[in-house]
Design brief:
The protein is of the alpha+beta class. The chain is built from three helices and six strands. The longest helix has 18 residues.
């Protein structure tokens, strides 16, 4: 399995994501959207960084259960109820990402959402990974 991250010099510099990821492998893992739900199904964390940490931890736990690791992520989509707040906290969110998932960045997008499934949720992450 290989994931080759491609960042063209013709595009703005990629910071915290890759512009393209070329994936070669034999298994695809599609990861359902994860929010800041704890084991009891309750949203935890009052701030975006707190919820982002839990949502990313949940996404990585699902990936681990499927036999993958953070470096296998090819694509992640972030749904945020307040994109302005997400941009304002991008440095802090990036530090959380690096702590939990490392620096092998997948292709990513941040999408503004009016509301997520759980009304208290501020952020949701989904994605897919490529495994051997």
């Amino acid at each position: 399995m290989s994931l080759d991250r491609v960042n063209s010099a013709e595009l703005s510099p990629a910071s915290g994501f890759s512009h393209a990821v070329v994936a070669t492998g034999s298994r695809l893992v599609f990861l359902a959207g994860q929010t800041a739900l704890d084991g009891d199904g309750k949203v935890v964390g009052a701030t975006l960084p707190e919820q982002f940490r839990t949502a990313l931890t949940n996404l990585l736990a699902a990936l681990d259960a499927a036999g993958g690791s953070p470096r296998d992520l090819a694509r992640v989509t972030v749904y945020a109820t307040d994109v302005g707040d997400y941009r304002d906290k991008a440095r802090e969110l990036g530090a959380i990402w690096r702590e939990l998932a490392g620096r092998d960045y997948p292709a990513m997008a941040v999408i503004g959402a009016v509301r997520l499934w759980d009304s208290q949720a501020l952020v949701e992450l989904d994605g897919f990974a490529v495994l051997d």
